[in-house]
Every structure is written in C-alpha cells, then in structure tokens.
Amino acid sequence: MNDKIITYIKEEIAIMPLDSIDVHEDLLGSGIVDSLGMMKLVVFLEKEFQVKIAPEDMTVENFDTINHISEYLSKK
Amino acid sequence: MLKLTASQMALWVGQKINPDAPLYNTAYAYTISGAIDKEVFQKAFQSLIDTTDALRIRFKEERGTPYQFAVDHMPHTLEVIDFSNTGKEDEILTKWLLKRSRQHLNLQEQVFDSALLKLSDNKYLWYINMHHLVTDGVSRKIIFDRMASLYGQFTGSKADSTIDETPSYLEYVTKELNAQAAEGTKTNYWSEKIAESGDLPEFYGVQPAKQVTETTRIPLQLGEERSRKLRALMSRPEVKAWTPHLTLFNILSSLLFVYMYRTSGRKKLVLGAPLHNRIDRKFHKTVGYFLEIFPMATEIDDSDSFKSVLQRVKVENSQNLKHALVDTVTEEISGSFNVVLNYIHTGFDNFNGLPTTSEWIHTGHIDSNHQLRCHILETPSEEEIKIVLDVNHATFDSETRERVPTHFLNLMDAMLHGMDTEIAKPTLISSEEKKALYHIDESFEVPSISVIECFEKMVESAPNAIALEDQGRIMTYAELNKKANSLARFLQKKEIGTNKKVALYLFRSTDYITSLLAVLKTGAGFIPIPSEQPKDRIAYILSNSECDLVITDSELKKRGEWQINLLDIEKERGHIQKETTSNLEIYTQGQDLAYVLYTSGSTGNPKGVLISQNSLTNYLLWAKEAYNINKESIFPLFTSIGFDLTITSTLLPLLGGGRIKIFREQGTGADLSFLDVIQDNQVNTIKLTPSHLALFKKNDAMQSRCRTLIVGGEDFKVQLAKSISSSMPPGLKIFNEYGPTEATVGCIVGEFKPDRHRDTSVPIGKPIANMNALILDSYLNAVPKGVVGELYLTGIGLAEGYVNAPQMTSEKFVENPHSKGTKMYRTGDLARLNSEYEYEYLGRTDDQVKLRGHRIELSDIESNLMHHDDIENCAVVLVENEKTIPEEEVVNCVKCGLPSNYPNTDFDEKGVCHLCNAFDNYKEKAERYFKKEEEMVRLLTSQRGKNPNYDCISLLSGGKDSTYVLARLVNMGLKVLAFTMDNGYISDQAKANIDNIVRKLGVDHVYGETPHMNEIFVDSLHRHHNVCDGCFKTIYTLSTQIALEKKIPFIVTGLSRGQFFETRLTEELFWDDQIDIQKIDDTILEARKLYHQESDAVKELLDVSIFQEETVFEKVAYVDFYRYCDVSLEEMLEYLREKVGWVRPTDTGRSTNCLINQVGIYVHKKEMGYSNYSFPYSWDVRLGHKTRNESLEEINEVIDEVEVKRIMKEIGYDKTEKDWEKNDQLVAYYTGNQDASISELQAFLGQKLPLYMVPSIFKHLEDMPLTKNGKIDKSGLKELTSEQLALDSPYEAPRNDIELLLADIWKEVLQLKKIGIHDNFIALGGHSLAAIRVTARINEEIEVDFPLSKIFELPTISEYGQYVEKTLTALLEN
What we know:
Chain A is mainly alpha-helical. Helices cover 53% and strands 0% of the residues of chain A.
C-alpha cells in the first residue's frame, strides 16, 4: 500500500522532484504536497483502494504522513 | 494559431466589455536593495522572454473569434529609468507606478510592460505588468524566480539552471482545448450548486445602476493581536485543514459568507474561489493563465454560529477541490457570484541574494461582475496577516467604503472571541456610525402647551374666522368654542374629567368635532368609534376600555344595546345649550390621556392604543409647521373617525386657524366620500391614503385646487406619486407620512421629490421633531445604511401602551438598549436607510396588511372565522391586483412594435422583444412553411371534376386583404364564389364597396347571416376579450355549410401571414431540427377539428352538426391565400386601386370596414391593457408585410367611446367601468365543509368585524398547502388569479414529477403563476392554440408523441398526468 502511495505522490503530485519519501515525512508541512495535490491523492486512493473518504476525515492527522494515510485506510 | 481556453475566454469577454479599463493588468513592483547591473539585467530580461512563451504570446481576432500565438523571436530592450536624485522619490514613484500600471496593454503586440527603475545607487525597482490572459499568481512567482536566476547566471554568480524541460504555456492551451472539445462539461456539479442561489446579493441595499470596473483597495488593519488570535484559531484541531493556507481560506470564506449575509440579508450565498489549477504536475513551472474560479455555496441563517458555518464551509471546500480536478466552470457559473475570495502567494523576498520587497499595484479596476474581492496575502508565519478588500464603486459609495473595514473586523472580532457566537449577534457598525445614522444622543423636548390651549389661542386671535363647514352650514371659531365649552361643562356634571374616558359614537359632523373638543376641555380622553363598527366590536371596545360615557346621537343609539352611560347629544341639546360658554381653564398634564384608538388585533379582538396629551400635541405642532397650516388651509374631514390618520384632518386645521369641511358618511357599505371631496373641489389640503389618491381621475386632478397632499396609511408607490404630481397643477406638495397608531399619527415624514425618488415606493422620509427611528436586527443591533432591519420608534409620540393588555404592551414597547431608560416601539415594519439617509418602508415582518389604508391583522379575521362550525382551518391572504403598466410607460419593441405590456414580454438592452429574437432563430425554418402561387392554383383546380360551377369559396370581408385575394383568384382564372359574413356592423360604404367589387369582378356572391350574432359577440368578448374570434368562427361555420351544400371543395381565406403566427404557427412547431411540413399541417388540421369542438356561443347557437363528422375536413379544405402569396402592403394597395377600384371606407372613422371591431379593441385594452391587434400586427411587421409605423398607427387609431358604449348596449354586453377596476381583495382559504355558504360566512364575519375586513372570496381546499417548516404557505396562496379563484375545483398542488412538469408547462403557456391539479384546462382559458403549444412542449420533454386531442379529453393535470404515467409504463414494459 505504502509503495503505491509513494509512487503516486512522486510521479503525480509532488511539487518538487524527489528521489524518495520517508513514510514518516510530513507531506503537508514540508510542502511536498499542496492541498490540490492532496485532493488528487484522495481521489486516487478512493479509486485504487475502493474506499470512500468523507470530507470530515480529510484531516491533517489522517493525511500528514504516508504512514498515517495507510493507517487511516486500513481502518476503513 | 490557437483558440482561447474557457478561462481565458472569460477574461477576453470581460476586457471586450470594458475595452479601456486596465482591469486585467497584473502589475508588480519589486524593490531590490542592492546594486544592479543594468546591462546584465536587460540581458537577463531578454533571456526571460526567450525562455517564457507566455511573454511572447500575441492575440488577434478574426471574424469575432480571438486567437493566440507566440512569436519565436522577440528582441526587446528593457527600459531603464533613473529616479535617483529627483528629491521626492517616493511621491513621484507612487504616481509613476499607478499611471504606468493603468496603461493599456495592446494584446496584438505585447502582453507585458516592464522597466527597471534606479531609485538610488543601492536601490532598484523592477516593474513588470502582464495581462492576466497570460499569467496568474503562481506564474508571478515563477517569473520572479526565473528572472533572479537568469540575472544570477549572467552575473556569473549562479550556475545555469535548466528550464528547458518545462513545457510551454501554449502546450497547456493545446491540451486544454483538446480536453474541452472532447468532454464538454462533464457533470452538472457546479450548475446544481448554483441552481438555487437565485439573484446576486445586493450589499447595503445597493442595486448597481450599471456595471463599472472602478474599485478601491482597502487594506484591513488586523494588527498584531488579531493576527495572533487568528493563528491560534488556525491551529485548533477542529479548524485545521491540510495546509495553513487552506485553513485560513476556510476561516476567511466563513467570515465573508457571514459578512455577505449580514449586509445583504441573503441566505443562499455563493462566492468565487480561484484555484491555481495546475493539476498536472508537469505544468508546475509553466507561466500562463491556469486559474479557474469555482463557486462555493452555502446557506446561512440567524441560528448559525461561526463554528457551524465553518464546518459547512470546510466540507464544501473539500468537495469543491475534488470536483475542480475533473470539471471546468462555464460562463453561467462565473456569473453566479459577485464576491471573490483569493489567496495570494508571495515569497518575493530575495532577488539573487539581494533583499527584496514586493508590491502588488492596484490599478483601481476589477472585473465589473465582481462587487467585492477579498485577498489574503501570504505572509511569513510570525508577521501580521494581511488581508485587502477590493470594493467596486457600483455598490460601495465613498461613505460605505470607509465603513466596510469596521463592519468586517467587528465580525472577525466576534468570531475570534468565540466560535460558538451566533453569527447574527455581533454588531456591524461602530458606535460613531450608529450615532451618525440614527441620531441616538439627541434629546427630546416635551411640549409646554396642550392642544386645547392652542385651539383657544386661535379662538382668541380670530374669533370670527370660519372653523367648520358642515352640510352648507358654517361655524366660526368663537361659536365652535362656545359650543364645546357648554358641552364640556355639561360633561363635568356627569363627572367627566381627567382620567376619564368618553367614547364618541357619532357620524362625521359638527357634533363630533364639538364633542371631541369638549371631552379634551374637561381633561378626559376620547375614544372615537366609527358609525360602521359592528355591534359586537363596539361592545368589546366599551367594556375593554372601561369607558365612562358614550356620546352618540338618536340614530346611532338605536344600533346597539347599551349597558353604559349614554348621552344622546341631539336629545340633550336643550340642556347643553343652557351651560356657560366660557373656557374651562383646566390645564392637563402632558402624561394625561388624550385619546384611545382601537386597531385590528391579532387575537380576534381589537386593541386600544393609549395616546397622551404630549404625544398628540407634539405631532400637531410639528405638522402645523411642516405642512404650513394657516388660516388659508381648508381640510376635508372625510375618512373614518376610527382611523388614526383622521386625527390630522380633525384637529390640525383648528390649530392653524384653518377650516374643516365635513363630508358625511354615505349610508352603509364602502365609504366613497372621497369622490365627493374631488367633486366639491373646495379644499386645498387633504390627508388621505394612496388608495384614495388613486381615485383621482386625470381630468379632476388637473382642475384640483389642492396644494398639499399628506399621504399616509399604507405603502405609497412612486408610480402613483408621479402620475398625481404630473397631472395636478404645479406647486403641489406631496408628503408621505409614516406612523403606526402607537406612535401617534405620523412620526416619519418625507416630501416626495419626483426627480430623486425613482424606486418602487416613495421613501417615508425622516423622523419628525422629538421622534427617532432605529433600524435594528434580530439582536437589536443598529444596522448599517442600506441594510434591511425592523423599524423601532422612540420619542415623545410613543403611546403609553394598550388598554388593559400589559403583556401585549410589554411585548411591543420594549427597553431601548441604545438609550438606557427609554422605551422603543417595535413596529413589525421592515425598513432601511437609503443613500440620502431617508427611511424606506419595505413591508411587514408579520401578517399585518393594509387594505385601502385600513390596518388589518389577518389573524384577526382568521381567529374569528375559526369560530364558524363549517371551518376546520383557514388562512386569509390579501391578493394584490395585478398592476398593469400605465399607458405612458409602455414601450414598443424597436423592431416589431410589440408593446411591453403584452404578457411575458422580455426586451433586450437594445429594446428588441423576445419574439423577434426567437424568430431570428427559426425564421429560415418557418420560410419552408410558405409555398408558391402555382402550387395554390394546382391545388384549387385539382378537384375540378367534382363541381362544375366553383373551384372555391373566397371569404370576402371587404377589407383590403380579402378583396385582394378575390381579385387575384379571379385573375388566376379560378371559378370563385364570394362569401361575406354580414355581422350587422359592416359599414354602408364597405357594403357598397363589396357590391361594387363583386360586380366588377363578375363573381357570384352570397351573404351569410345569423340572428344570434349579438350573442356570439358578447360571448366572444367574455371569452376572448374581443369580437373577432366569435365572428371568425361564425364565418368558418357558415361558409363550410355552404361549401358542403354546394359541394365546393375549397375555402380560401384572407388571413394575413401575421395572423398565421398569431393563430396557429407557434414557435413549438419549429423546434425540430428537421421540420416536417406535412406534420405541421396535420397538427394544424387536428387543432382546427378541436377548434370546432370548443364550447362557446357558436357551438351552442348555430348548427354545427357538420363538424361532428370526421369527413367534413376531407370534403372541404381550407386554403390560406397568403401562404402562397407574398405581397407587401404597398403593392397590394396599388393593385387594388388600379385593378379593382377598392376604396378605403371613411364612415367607420378608422381603417377597418367593420363598426363593431372597435368594441373588441376597447374591451381588450380595458381587460388586457393592450390592443388585440398588437400581437398579430407585430407578426406582420416581423414578416415584412407592414412597417412598424404603419402597424403602430393602426393600433393607436382613436376609439369612439360613445359609439363603443352604444354598441355594447345594443348587443347586450353589460360590463361597466366598475367591473374593470381591479382592486386588492381579501381571500379566505379554508378546509372543512365544502358546501359552506359563502354569504353565510360573510354575514357571520360581518357581525364581528368591520366590513372592510370581511373577505370577498372564500375558497375551499382539501388540505392547507404547507411550507417546509410546516407553516401554511401563504405566499403560494397569493398567486392564484381571480379567474382561478372563481373555479369550482378545490386547489391541490402537483403531487409528483409528472404533475410538476405538466403544471410548469401549463403555467408557461397559459401565463399563470400557479395551477392546481384539478383546474380545468378550458376553464383556465386553454384553447386549441394553447393545446398545440402545451402538447408540443410535453412531447418535447417526455419524448413521446401524445395526440393533441388528449388535453381536451383529459383536461386536468391530475387526469393527464395519470395518462402520461400509464403510457410511459406501457412503453417501458414493451
């Protein structure tokens, strides 16, 4: 799961070119992903993992790192 | 060359509309601290151009379509200007920047403007302005960084960076255009979002008169503390979004929504949120215009807190971001908002290592669609947050501009204080603004004299002046005073004095005035009870008020059963006269009661308003000055004494030395005394209601001696004020006086100014002396100028309260939070201040209505009606008459002459009507309906074998069109029988003309006749508001009979092409892309069959059995001559003159040859407001058969009213002027016994309520229609027309989608606002033409071919809906 997310972030939404992303890296705080990019990620995740992400769940806590994203998704 | 993207197009159009405004110039000034090498900078700039295609783009327009392309090489020398050593650098620089930023960019040559300014040896400024079409917020950052980097490379301080990989802007444009072409708009997510938002909000009550681009930028001074609090708020978990930028955006959009709601009153709101939209990562570093502005929508009301708004906005924003990924906005969506919230990225603090500051230069112009833009400027985290507002001058005048920051920051402070705060709670305006708007601190001056003292002074100074005139008898001031003194002394013996109450149950008379003065002289208060008051109500008033005595006369005494002391003034006259006549010298206190006036109450009983001496004197003394009342003034006393506006006519003249002329009540029923006042024309000052004023006929108004009109009692429309002031002699003053009984007669007054007052209603003006008026919101905050709130009154004129109703008194007379220790009266009226600080009345917050000046609580009627056994539930509404546009304000379409009062017309800004515009689109298709003359000859001769004598009947009215038809048919060699309908009103000359023509042409001729013609005319006038429809049908019926008898296969009509479009060729017939003429002919034939089935006088009175047989239309076919022949009026007249010798009859006084046709025009104009020829003639013009002038000339021909009335009488048409007068009326809807007798219900109410409160219409309902909140839907109930109310069917709203669809279609075609599902199509005025239109629309919507006749077989929505449903189910099952 993490790999798929990392690949998508690197190839599609990262604002700057990246070699790798740590699963604990603060995606939003470090400016790797902006809010539009994050929304793109949400759409990707919904499609890829067949989940529905409610607007209420779109919080920093759920989405700031790759680890948190997969934790959140595994709870769904 | 490439086209423009949808987003670019929006800008292009905006710029085209305002070609000279620099509204899309995006100018930046970067001040760089450090030495700059000019040559290197210029080199770097050239390189910037070379590497950035957006800077090389040019635009050009070909055949109206704009294109863009980039030039490959664009040598450019950056301008360098030396500003150093000029002395006043800052000042000169600011001016230079502003001027330069406003410079027009010629998009055909260069989309940018740039320069390097030397400010000093160590300070430079780089100025760059780009047109928005090629840049956006992100681009600015890219440009700045790229320029810094290039400069670094050329100075050698930086390595080459690679920008080659970044795709060009035109690459993006290409991709976008392909995407647009492939997808169109994908979903209707955005359209749905804005669907219910309605009209754009108007802030501060300003409806922009025109669109302007002029704007002022206002920085909001947040200061350190607010910024700190805002950052603290942003970090709270329930507030925080993904990024600080998004968090701040959410907070500010919530705040902006609240601000919009509070300043516009609009609950459904939309704001535009620009999104950088570089969704594809590869364009992250591309310069260009990528931006799209998406709508954010929300619905707010007073129950919201800042928190609840923010929660909704957060969700809304997430959903929007998601949809922004796949959808694009359309022009329609861009027009759905007039407020934009923008987040501006910055980060221009370092130019190649040199410290830099940046400034976004405001050119003073923005998109004219936007009234307000709020920009959040990105700032480093420790600094003050920067927010600027761009406010459009169309909405924000200079005063409002100064106040906006306070309003906005007050809301922000409330939010920062606590997110749970209700959004309606914080005040918007500062206390200074409040003082300025509402004069809070002004103190009131208590009058030092009483009304009676004023009157007695007048008596003393002019004892022999005339005070009263009553039925021809006059009375001087001295006589009146003596009479009043005697009566007062008589009353004193009956223990009447201070703190006592005396009811005056009298007609308008000398006795009334005398009694009123006498009561006041004793120190007691009076209670006026008008003669028309019902018994029960009088009994209630007397007991409720604990009245001590009733003064009445011998006649009125008989009307009641009295359990109270009674003084019959006629009977006691002898005794009264014996009393001393000198003044009583009783000095009342200001707080003593002056009078009690009973008004409609919401509980079913009237409520008594207690007015003190001070209140009364304050009003009268003010009015004396303001209206300049003096010994010349003559007032009529003609309104009900129970009306508080009558106080003016009763006392004001006597305080100014003027005269009262009394007009007595006229029996029972509606009091029409005002007509006597007009007729009499002796008075010069009148206090009256707008309803009275409307009775002034033009002729009377011109003769009127009146110089001052004081209008009160109900909303005064500008329309009426204008027409009165223009028809009365110059020098007339019209005052609009506002004031509930509870604030003594009038407390806000303004003079009508025709040049300044142009809105719907005349402003009510400004508070009078010693009175004040506050406009407050639901939290009792004073509202800003222009914002609507509830009107509260304060000051000397306030009533003491209601008689024996402490609770009601405390509800209505509340503590004034704006001036401790005082009371204010809650009016229930909505108001706002206009730009001149005049108060404007805008309606009621509750159920109170005004009918002909009478104040009525609808719940008063309802609670009385509920007592009737037949009633389960009821709702009473005031249905206002459909105001017709006054003749002088009607405009005619500049192309076809259609008048603007034709139903549902819509004129574009060029003055062209919707029919002309629509016709442009199907003109070519419609052409195909018309044929060639040869085809007609072929058709008419095709059946020659069948009848040896005639090929066809030619319908000959004797007019030019039908004469031309006959002559041409003969000329074509056809064998013709001419048929003329003698309807009894063909003029003698026309008849001679007809006989001449047929003789000259040598054709056989017959006249058709019927003894029922007059009945047919009357029926036609009732049904169609004209005579022609009935006549036409008679002609068709009789001529078809002859054709059948004589076996003639064709009837040729002389209908004009305009008439085709009027009577059969509806727009719907041409909706199909591939029109099928045969199908149109079939539909028209179908409609003709239905036409002859329609029940009317023709069907009842003539023998129409021939039409029962289907084959009749096979045996006889109708041919419209002008379908085959296209001839102009000029050609036709020429032909007639030369070949036929036709002359226009002169004995009809008009261009027609039929004497009765003007009756039709007259009635049509009375009932519909426009001539029945307006519509067909507009078609003649549209088709080029008449000019606009010819048509208007004929339509405006003079009608001989005397002759019209004579003919009306002759044919037995009995409608009169009175029937055509449209009045507001009370309508009672009820559930319960359907068979309840209306006259009984009216009589029942008549016992309890004054006549004017008894509804004129009662309508039974199966169920009360309810709103979403479960309240009775009164606004819906107000939409039925009087014709619909007269139907027997109970009203029931559509119940499902099919019924809703049908109702919508019916409403459109029949031009009604509301239709019940049991209403009959025919009874609603549906005829065969309407059937074509309705059926075509249904078929278009449902995509099934329903036959035309169904609508007559199943003439209600309920029945038709079931049929549609069954048909659809059957189709699905197969």
